[in-house]
Amino acid sequence: MPNRARLARERAHAEVSAEIRRVARDQLAEVGAPALSLRAVAREMGMAPSALFRYLPNKDALLTALIIESYDELGEAAEQAEAAVHTEPVTARWSAICHAVRRWALDHPHEYALVYGSPVPGYVAPQDTVGPATRVARLLSALLGDALREGLEPPTGPPTEETAARLHATIAPVRADLPDEVPDELVVRGLMAWTYLFGAVSFEVFGHRTFGVLDDPAAFFDYEAGLVARLLGIMPT
Amino acid sequence: MPNRARLARERAHAEVSAEIRRVARDQLAEVGAPALSLRAVAREMGMAPSALFRYLPNKDALLTALIIESYDELGEAAEQAEAAVHTEPVTARWSAICHAVRRWALDHPHEYALVYGSPVPGYVAPQDTVGPATRVARLLSALLGDALREGLEPPTGPPTEETAARLHATIAPVRADLPDEVPDELVVRGLMAWTYLFGAVSFEVFGHRTFGVLDDPAAFFDYEAGLVARLLGIMPT
DNA sequence: CGCATCCGTGAACGGTGTTCACTCTGGCTG
DNA sequence: CAGCCAGAGTGAACACCGTTCACGGATGCG
């Protein structure tokens, strides 16, 4: 095992791989995922198109890498925005997260579309994507725990015992990495907040709030973000 | 103007156009929008690919037609579901609409992705699409009016006069085709219900509720649909 | 009849992802 | 040192795509 040279080779390989992803990201941001072309990437790098296949099994693999990077960048943006107000009350932190997600999505519409838009029909997300994909969700989970600690009285659950049991079973997967003291109903409300946040952002990024619907989407978002947290009962009053 | 033959010609033309859309819809349902191929459509119809251009200016036009048809089919499904329970209380009608939208979306994932997924980067939706696009929203608007008539006391608006004014300005477009007696805050809640409905459905159809998030998305949807209407205060208690 | 209008064809162009046989080259092994 | 071999890069090729264009038949009009 020629360790020295082996590592050098591997590092060179990784460097070219990174360069490919960098160029591809630029193209993605410019023309969007459907128009992303391996040949164009190769052209920009001054290589033959076939050379790319020394670094990628196929185009899907490149897409997967870009998906992971996009998830990570969005997660990073949300985490940084939250960290900046981490000592403030949870309502402020919730608002910061919402606005960070919206800001990043509007600034990177093609990357956002790649991860939260229509999935590519044949494509199945590899396991590597689930970690980065849940960064924002984990941020919200942490927020719920802190809200409890800040005196939030958890909302009351479903009226009947039966639906409560069914609900409990349904949210079992997401409960798995959540502290036990968070009651079921609060988990549900958290999932709903998560759903609403990305529903609202997707609507705006994908153009469903433009055609004679809203005049000032930013103002509306600001209002709805505050309101939804209060109505869902996930913030101390 | 040779009326007789003229009309026959036009009818034949319209018939072939319809056949093209039919075949294209089948392909869309099978392989999804990105993989939809004009050549494949032509093959299935036994025509040369170039012949299609007698009926379409380009592929985008075909996509537009499919978008309109999809909007219309979804709107139709929602309207029929609502009509079936139209005499029941508004909560039942809201629930029927939610489930109809979800059902249709899960049954027609590619069509749903076409209209509520990532927009095609270069593509701009023609004016013809806005009518069909708002069918579900109009259904919800009508529901809000009926809820008021059924004794719903509208939720209280924002605390400060200033945000109330800004909100009023923002929702001006959607107010345009809404009766005046619907208060601003109820309009906002309606928009939020609309946002949540499609946010939840998109999350499920696009696979964000599968990977270790929920065990039984149907049960969760049923619960959240009822809860969101109650929390938003758009249904009489 | 001549003529115009529409329909359909087949070839072509430039684009795509991907494969494959080939060459080159740096560093390890005998 | 000679030999070799894994990896990088090439260019041609294949099959597909959307779109254009010149052409050949119909068909119905004057």
Structural description of this entry:
The structure is a homodimer of 237-residue chains. With 237 residues, chain A is mainly alpha-helical. Chain A has 11 helices and no strands. Chain A has 2 domains: 1-56, Arc Repressor Mutant, subunit A, CATH 1.10.10; 71-232, Tetracycline Repressor, domain 2. Chain A has helices at residues 3-31, 38-45, 59-84, 90-107, 109-116, 130-133, 135-149, 161-170, 172-175, 184-205, 217-232. In chain A, helix 3 (59-84) packs antiparallel against helix 4 (90-107) and helix 10 runs antiparallel to helix 11. Chain A is globular. The model of chain A has no long low-confidence stretch (mean pLDDT 94). The interface between A and B is large, with 58 and 58 residues. Chain A binds a DNA duplex (30 and 30 nucleotides) through residues 2, 5, 9, 12-13, 16, 37-39, 47-51, 53-54, 58-59.
